[in-house]
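Quick one: structure for this chain?
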Amino acid sequence: MKKNIFLIVCVCCIQFVNAQDKFKFGEVPKDLLEMTVYDKDSTASAFVVYEKKDVFYGWNNAQEDFELISEYVVRIKILTADGVEHADGIIPFYKGSTSSSSQNITSLTGWTYNLEDGKIVKEKLSKDYVFTEDVTENFKRMKFALPSAKAGSVIEYKYTLKSPFIYHPENFQFQRSIPVQYSGFKISIPEYFQFNRETKGYERIKVNIKPVSMSFIMQGGRVLTCMGEEISSETVDLPALKDENYVWNYNDFMAGISFELRKIVITGVRYTDYAQTWDKVVGGLMNYDYFGKKLSNKGLFKEELAAIKASEGNDEDKLREILNLVRSEVKWNDRETLYINNPSKALKEGVGNSGEINSLLFNAVKNAGYEPGVVVMSLRSNGRIPRYPGSDGFNYFIVQVKAGDKTYYMDATRSYCDLNVIPVECLVDQALCIYDKTFNWVNLTKIGNNTSRINLIVSFNEDGVLSGKKSKILTGEYVFSFRETYEKAKNESEYIQDVETDNDISITNYTITEKKAVLVEAYDFTSNTIRIEDEDLLTIHPLLFEGMSSNPLKQEERKLPVEFKYPSDDRININIIIPKGYALDEVPKSERFVYGDNNSIDFSYAVQANENSVQIAYRLKLDTCIVPVTEYEDLRDFFSKVYAKCQEVLVFKKV
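Got it. Here's what it folds into:
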């Protein structure tokens, strides 16, 4: 047994060594260009041949301080046309108001290799294909495209990034949506800086640490010598982690490593303990000039709030009026941020980022006599916050208000938000709710009452065409999702046309009504395909264009947990009038399926029939958001049954 383990270790070491020895930037082996399929994943559109990131501290004489230097190199083999997208590179960086507060990208070099008539042809990345774009005011990204990339190409590029943010080494991700043959990371840290370290993902990452001696040449040729540690990690033959249905952010599950400063120790000169507790994090946020200090503007909306306070509505009505007031005054500029820059300017100009708008909401609620709190979070698209305490993971906040025995969550960035109806991105399972300097953790996935009630009355008209009336009553996040989709269309006509196309129907008498977070959509319709053709048997799907149109969980195996958008309660009630000259011949039977020990997902399908009509009551109630991957087989079986039930048909026989 020991001999076998020794052999395995040796093989792994040989693989690592070979991966590094074979790589030489600017030269590519011909057999790699001739490769058409990756032997460890025949479905791969591309794979990472080699990737390495070396991070180390240097001395910046101009700033008289340390700086972080990252040297990155990657080589990718493109196997199919779908893999060409990996020839487009993105390097995010921070641009501050001065050079001392900005990151700087240098030495970007790239090559594309192709095999033409049996010869290797290489083409260099041109400056014409490199440009920089704004993400936010300070965050930028350099984008570039390697030339002549196609199926069969090999691309590679390297660059150096210098950063003044010596306390924040960038996270490194070993895994990707394509396989990775070799990936290596190394960071050399002077003894003065001590970090917490965290690895994540389902793939095991082995971390090696060894002491090293270090030296830095300072102003005037002085040399600073010290000890430090070198932290390195290598992975080989990592499988692709592909995005699966029902995952909030699959980057949460990719193998990676991150660092958080714990303390600075310079003997006899400086000792600063950065070891964080959540109490310290909260205190730091509430004392920060661009967060807590902006939550005390007493002069906002005096006249408007006086009128709202004097109105006869209850707390819910008044809070909704305050929410609408802020939204009417300031429009969102699509920028999501935790920090609050200049709310007064945003109010004056009528446009601002999320931090500015929700700070105005916070202050308006407070000035109306309520005691609001702020709820800071990492949006789903940003990934879950690290396990160790720190504020770096947060990138957004909303407002919490307690009125009587009820708790409301509010966000004023979108026109279709409401009380306890916030962007789906905010529905995270862990957020930090802060009142002054006290705090508690809250789960935002279950704050709303998200219901959909669909009623259909269906019959065959004089021409034998299926027609009917539909009404849909939505609450909670369903209203948000509906409005989000509706407002993407140019106008109502385009939206109706999309519904007609998706459901193969023609619509008339379309209306939308909305009152106090309840939206009702109603219309008359005729089917473009379902009609009586004088056949002996008439077969239709009783749920028509409603219900489950496809099985949401088809894969036999799954690597990631199932994360639904939000808990929900969907009901469909259908009344089908039996066509003249026909009688009911075949009808689905009533059934109920439940999933989970506490019936966390409940499905029922009830059927009642008489001589004139068939009534079907469908309900799918979801009381959970996250199902671990260990329970996937049972969950898949549950949804397979639900889907099969939705495919059952009504059969009418000619009499």
